[in-house]
Amino acid sequence: MSDGPAADDAVTDGGQNSWFANYFGFAEHGTDLRTEIVAGITTFLTMSYIVVVNPAIMTQFPGPDGKPGIAIEGYTPGEVQQMLAVVTILAAATAIFVMAFYANRPFGQAPGLGLNAFFAFTVVGAMGIPWQTALAAVVTEGVLFIVLTAVGARKYIIELFPEPVKFAVGTGIGLFLAIIGLEAMRIVVDDPTTLVTLGPIATDPVAILSVVGLFLTLMLYVRGLKGAIVIGILATAVMGAVATFAGLVEPGVAAAEFVRNGGLDMSRMTAAQYDITPLFGAFLDGFANVDAFAFSLIVFTFFFVDFFDTAGTLTGVSQIAGFLDEKGNLPEIEKPLMADAIGTTVGGILGTSTVTTYIESSTGVEEGGRTGMTALVVGLLFLAALIVVPLAAAIPLYASHIALVVVALLMLQNVTDIQWDDLSHAVPAGMTILIMPLTYSISYGIAAGIISYPLVKAAQGEWRDVHVGQWLLAVAFVVYFAVRTSGVLTTVA
């Protein structure tokens, strides 16, 4: 039954007369409520894996095959994992809601992969730093980000990025997304001789489903079907479940863990450990007996990686959305940067590693998401995952990562924005594009481009065209690489 004429009008006009349309500016951004909702669902499906993956990386499991991370006396690793799942959701939702209502941008945020591994394996494991102190470093970094964002320093530094680097980030991220997606789909696998090679796509059920799902999604997309990516993800997940129900593959191979032969094994859907008090505020204890030098290096590393990962992601995804101006800058970039800073600070207080903007946001943008409404949908879906945390992993990784490969193919068109006939543009742009996927790091790719730009310009005799800030950025990255790759982080504690 209709709620009245106003509700009917909101439906027939795509929500253009709704409160959401007015607040987020649908007309100004050429979008509508349905498009924003579909975009939000798409982004959530591609990044929801973090609810399970982040706790798995951050939790210490004892035993012969154990790993470092967070361990809390009196709680099992499974219970700690559940706490971290709840904390991951809350930290992500906090940052995303700031992104939605303050920045009005369609970007999703959550604790970042890579930084969580650095937290667990390098800081807590190799350096032997208590996990409470590692959280203190995360909070310190977040507060620094808030201050630097408020005074405009982060915006200033990002706008110093050389133009060819800005325009290369999108293509570099595209290749990065491609390798992440193809690995999850088992189309690309490890090889001891060539590093990577083609997987057994004729015999591996996951690879077979991935290939079918990928081409199904591409066909739907080129047909112009709205929501093609999310339909492809869900269809692939259903095919995996059907294969498991039919007994064609072993349970857990091609479907979610709680899909067993013949039905759902509800015992696998463990309720979340909602009591996060052992993690909440633990960073305060971490400031006791801190080694100033070691602590500074930890904050330095968190700061550098998060800063440039976020800058690269915002630039690359904004390039797809058409948000960048003629100089390759994102207008009012300080607003999404503040969402990142607040998310990181709140995440550290709650008990998780650095929060950052996700490259998976590009999937929602490609579906037409252009406003904070997309982010709002992502945040609400994260909160909904609190009801039964394991349900956030109901979509198998290979199914959700089909979206990454589709978007990667589309992002390659950004390469045409680069002036390839000018070597002062071609070299730094090429370095950015190549290094990003091959080192599995957005920040390393940006660093390679920033370091090479002033060197190439100087070699051409055009060193006066290089801003002094760009020279300083290049030197800062050289220092960062020296710290990050010399092993000093594992020897100072």
TrEMBL record:
Keyword field: Cell membrane, Membrane, Transmembrane, Transmembrane helix, Transport
Annotated transmembrane regions: 37-57, 83-103, 110-129, 135-153, 165-189, 201-222, 229-249, 293-317, 379-412, 433-456, 468-492
Membrane topology, from the record: Multi-pass membrane protein
Gene Ontology molecular functions: purine nucleobase transmembrane transporter activity
Record InterPro entries: Azg-like, Azg-like_bact_archaea, NCS2
Localization: Cell membrane
GO CC term, one of those recorded: plasma membrane
One Pfam family here: Xan_ur_permease
Family: Belongs to the nucleobase:cation symporter-2 (NCS2) (TC 2.A.40) family. Azg-like subfamily.
Name of the featured protein: Putative MFS transporter, AGZA family, xanthine/uracil permease
Organism (species): Halorientalis regularis
